[in-house]
Fold each of these.
Amino acid sequence: MVQRTLAIIKPDSVEKKVIGEIIKRIEEAGFKILAMKYTKLTEEQAKSFYEIHKDKPFYNDLVKYMTSGPIVPIALEKENAVEEFRTLIGSTDPTKAEEGTIRKLFGTNIERNAIHGSDSPENGEKEVLFFFSKSEIVYNY
Ligand code: UDP
Ligand code: MG
């Protein structure tokens, strides 16, 4: 099944100047880029994006971190995209992530973990539309 998933290159990666390193790995893994932008979340947007975690102890810090600097959201498409992208990025905690994964390579800690990946095909669709309108999605290559 061809699926969509949302990647977000998080503020720690932008600060470390590894946007290119990360996109290179995404391209090499065979993901098709449908849309991409360089932007910054407002507090309201970050709260809404991570609403599912609103009762977690890490929520307020997560919102602070995700609004602390620019991010690069990227809409991706591939066969089995959600699971394959989660494999490419590795576990939430970079110290526990598999060797060679994006979080292992570029993450700092369980909060500042370099990159986001959607957790289900439904959320992949939903999260892509959080950042990109249908007219911003490019199909023709
Ligand atoms: N997070 C955190 N502390 C935790 C767990 C998660 O700060 O104990 C942050 C981290 O940036 C993570 C995000 O909250 O990527 C969302 O958490 P989730 O459990 O959905 O992890 P993910 O799906 O990103 O691996
Ligand atoms: Mg998640």
Amino acid sequence: MQEKKKLSLATQIFIALVLAIIVGLLMGNHADAANSYIKPFGTIFLNLIKFIVVPIVLFSIMCGIISMRDVRKVGSIGLKTVVYYLCTTAVAIVIGLVGGNLFKGLFPVIATTDLTYEAAESTTLMDTIVNIFPSNFVSPLVNANMLQIIVMALLLGFAIVLVGEKNVMVVNAFNDLNDIFMKCMEMILKLSPVGVFCLLCPVIAENGPAIIGSLAMVLLTAYICYFVHALVVYSLTVRAMGGLSPIKFFKGMMPAILFAFSSASSVGTLPLNMECTQKLGASKEVSSFVLPLGATINMDGTAIYQGVCAIFIAACYGIQLTLPQMITIVLTATLASIGTAGVPGAGMVMLAMVLTSVGLPVDGIALVAGVDRIFDMGRTTVNITGDACCSLIVSNLEKKKSA
Ligand code: ASP
């Protein structure tokens, strides 16, 4: 007991992850039991995270803006953030496409004749943009629509700053509420090792080594690209602009990384990501603004996955993608990743948009759907690491500016 208390959260999550893999493999023949008896506890944990994430995003962005007390400062932080997010996502998709092309020869060619994939109602780019703006004060909160919540938080935060001193009572109240929800979050996060075990074990039991078999090369390619992106782009930028050693960065991020890997949800990882980045030195006002935004719009891992899968699906259909088509993929995947929700499986839905943009059959998604969760675990890990990197960089740049 005494011993356990000393273990850091990262170590506890890591132990839970290893145990989940071992137990999951052992339960390979009893996936039903894992789904019936272990998964529900994972769902309870995810429900608690979902419960806390809406107030956390709303209040942390609002309080972040209020604490800056200056509309121009928010603008300058917002601009840096969005530029970093867009550029790294574009680089990510290029890495995905290059990796896909390099390893294409090793991909299996799966027959595509009887494929069907029930694509969710496809959303156009314009729909995605229109849907960012809420038409109702309550529904974004009820439906946990993160982009709409961000717009609400920005509007309210700016309004409070502009109305100024008169708002003292409300500012105190919001800051208090923010503290209370953060405390709730801390309590929920203490359960994360158990949550991680219960979420991951059924996935391993169900997917086991067999299903991975035929798609092993595609999965491996995606994971190589995830690693390259994290090690090259994040290490370089965090060192050059964040003033932090990459080793320290990845070490400090370990709890969030392990959690993202097991939960496959950027939004779910948000609370832990805030804790890790603040421990690494990101200022609270910056990270409370940059991270919720990133968990919603910045998806580098998802972009990589879309690049690799587009190449794989094209190859199965015997289609050779041309350079202009690849450029179209870079653009659409960058935009699609903005519209991707930070929840498990969302990236696969947005893959439909990317495939359609270059005339590839949407049915091709069925080829990768079976192992989506395995792709998802890696892409979510990259997604949240990118958010963290950005918050440290912006925070460092702001500190330098005001020094
Ligand atoms: N699960 C991913 C995330 O939460 C999104 C995706 O499916 O690509 O970041």
